């Protein structure tokens, strides 16, 4: 008997952490016109290279209800309760699918407890919530402690990111063609964030050039550091490891804490495109 923590692949938690904390990951999928992949199985260099060379934005899909039910059933059959934390319900149907799977299994496992939590976000802003829950379980916490640890983490998370190009936002219908053209000419870079109440991505500010946008993010981050202190920092990048490593080194030197680097996979990456740089951090 125990608690199985389950999440989806858009958390982008590294395999070593998942193994250490016994976190189960359900993959979302991506689909080109000629081939499809589970997100956690496709080589990212291949995926982003194909997306750029063929100038096509693939689609993505959530785990099927059957896949969700199987994952839940396997854990329940071992006598475990389930704490499942998924990508924002405003961004994906994964959360709704989990609710449907729980309902379907309620008759089969009437005594089981399946708690499903909407993270209101994605990437390591989701991942940190999952890790907090799993760490609570690892030290002997029950369901209440696991869910509270995730909720407390969510309240203190900040997530900012900057696309290198407006091309993918335009292709995905998130900005108009005229705005994309004008923004490209003027080198305007949107600073995007995730509203942790509504679970939606929105424009925070605009900056003239990528360097200025990153500088502004670091200003916002430093303001939070001064007010509350920084518990953890994760630099995100989409097929831009060198720039990500540079930012990681800068932040580690400035704040004298460990800074992780997270490579963002296809399901989230296809929306803003290669070259995107971001930061997720958690305050105390």
Low-confidence stretches: none
| CATH-scheme architecture of the largest domain | 2-Layer Sandwich
Gap between N and C termini: 32 Å
The fraction of residues assigned to DSSP E strands is 25-35%
Number of strands: 13
Mean pLDDT: 93
Shape: globular
Quaternary organisation: single chain
SS content category: alpha/beta
With helices defined by DSSP (H or I, 4 residues minimum), what is the helix count? Answer: 11
The whole-angstrom Rg is: 19 Å
Largest sheet: 6 strands, mixed
Strand order of the largest sheet: 10-9-8-13-11-12
CATH-defined topology of the largest domain: Hypothetical Protein Tm841, Chain: A,domain 3
Please provide the ordered H/E string of secondary-structure elements: EHEEEHEHEHEHHEHHEEHEHEHE
Overall helicity: 40-55%
In total, the number of domains comes to 2
CATH class of the largest domain: Alpha Beta
Structure, explained:
The protein is an alpha/beta fold. The protein has 2 domains: 2-26 and 63-155, 3-Layer(aba) Sandwich (Rossmann fold), CATH 3.40.50; 157-283, 2-Layer Sandwich (Hypothetical Protein Tm841, Chain: A,domain 3). It is 44% helix and 26% strand. It has helices at 15-21, 44-53, 65-77, 94-105, 123-138, 143-155, 167-171, 177-185, 210-228, 241-255, 266-272; strands at 2-8, 23-26, 29-31, 36-38, 59-61, 80-86, 114-118, 157-162, 188-195, 200-208, 230-237, 259-263, 277-283. The strands form 3 sheets. A 6-stranded mixed β-sheet has the order 10-9-8-13-11-12, with helices on both faces. The chain has a 4-stranded parallel β-sheet with strand order 2-1-6-7, with helices on both faces. The chain has a 3-stranded antiparallel β-sheet with strand order 4-3-5, with helices on one face. Helix 4 links the parallel strand 6 and strand 7 (114-118). The protein is globular, with a radius of gyration of 19 Å. The mean pLDDT is 93.
């Amino acid at each position: 008997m125990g608690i199985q923590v389950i999440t989806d692949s858009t958390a982008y938690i590294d395999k070593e952490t998942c193994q250490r904390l016994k976190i189960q990951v359900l993959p979302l999928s991506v689909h080109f016109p000629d081939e499809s992949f589970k997100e956690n199985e496709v080589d990212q260099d291949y995926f982003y290279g194909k997306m750029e060379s063929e100038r096509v934005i693939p689609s993505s899909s959530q785990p099927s209800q059957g896949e969700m039910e199987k994952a839940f059933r396997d854990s329940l059959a071992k006598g475990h309760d389930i704490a499942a934390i998924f990508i924002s319900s405003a961004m994906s149907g994964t959360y709704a699918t989990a609710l449907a799977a729980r309902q379907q299994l309620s008759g089969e496992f009437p005594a089981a407890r399946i708690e499903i939590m909407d993270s209101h976000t994605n990437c390591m802003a989701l991942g940190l919530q999952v890790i907090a829950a799993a760490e609570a379980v690892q030290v002997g916490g029950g369901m209440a402690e696991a869910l509270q640890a995730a909720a407390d983490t969510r309240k203190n998370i900040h997530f900012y990111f900057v696309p290198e190009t407006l091309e993918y936002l335009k292709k995905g219908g998130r900005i108009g063609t005229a705005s994309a053209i004008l923004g490209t000419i003027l080198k305007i870079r949107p600073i995007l964030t995730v509203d942790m109440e509504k679970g939606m991505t929105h424009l925070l500010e605009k900056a003239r050039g990528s360097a200025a946008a990153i500088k502004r993010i670091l200003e916002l981050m430093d303001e939070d550091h001064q007010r509350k202190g920084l518990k953890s920092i994760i630099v995100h990048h989409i097929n831009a490891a060198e720039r990500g490593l540079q930012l990681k080194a800068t932040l580690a030197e400035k704040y004298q804490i460990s800074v992780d680097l997270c490579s963002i996979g296809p399901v989230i990456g296809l929306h803003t495109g290669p070259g995107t740089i971001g930061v997720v951090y958690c305050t105390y």
